[in-house]
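> example.struct
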């Protein structure tokens, strides 16, 4: 798995030629941090996403009727459907109010959709209660300052490559993809592959 350091999807042991060295004997401090990240990913049972800047690219198209239009990546949607089928709880918390976004997410099977949210920690607590999930089991993906209260608390904090500096500084994993360009797919794929839940065709 990739983070702000490079991580693969294999076991967090190091190779010395063909000889495996026990983790406790071989890992330097930075490698121990990566092992800790693997533990965080394996703990995830739910994923919660922001909309603007995560599921979208932060751009708004305003038509002549004053309607705000957004674009979403098809691969993000497919990954959300796979995660739901694998038993993960999926939530979306956004400050915006868009019927189009609501219909799109409902079509993917997302039931936990919170819109018009000013304080995301409160909506996040409602998500935990409704899904019977612990904060220590949640991956949250956000890109801007309103996401910080949740990002600071969850077991796995993630963001797209173009998140604001304050968010980039605290996240466990920064996707190489920007918001709206399959960063959600990237994060879901990493989590599901490490848990051996990624679909095979």
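> example.seq
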């Amino acid at each position: 798995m990739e983070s702000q350091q490079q991580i693969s999807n294999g076991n967090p042991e190091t190779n010395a030629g063909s000889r495996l060295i026990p983790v406790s004997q071989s890992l330097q401090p930075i490698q121990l941090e990566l092992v800790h990240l693997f533990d965080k990913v394996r703990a995830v049972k739910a994923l919660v996403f922001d909309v603007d800047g995560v599921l979208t690219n932060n751009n708004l198209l305003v038509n002549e009727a004053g309607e705000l239009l957004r674009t979403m990546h098809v691969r993000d949607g497919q990954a959300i459907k796979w995660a739901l089928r694998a038993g993960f709880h999926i939530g979306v918390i956004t400050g915006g109010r868009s019927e189009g976004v609501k219909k799109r997410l409902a079509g993917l099977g997302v039931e936990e959709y919170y819109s018009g949210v000013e304080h995301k920690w409160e909506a996040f607590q409602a998500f935990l209660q409704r899904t019977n999930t612990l904060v220590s089991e949640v991956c949250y993906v956000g890109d801007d300052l309103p996401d910080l209260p949740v990002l600071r608390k969850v077991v796995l904090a993630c963001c797209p490559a173009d998140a604001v500096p304050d968010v980039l500084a605290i996240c466990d994993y920064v996707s190489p993809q920007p918001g709206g360009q399959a960063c959600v797919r990237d994060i879901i794929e990493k989590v599901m592959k490490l848990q051996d839940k990624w679909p095979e065709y």
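> remarks
The radius of gyration is 17 Å.
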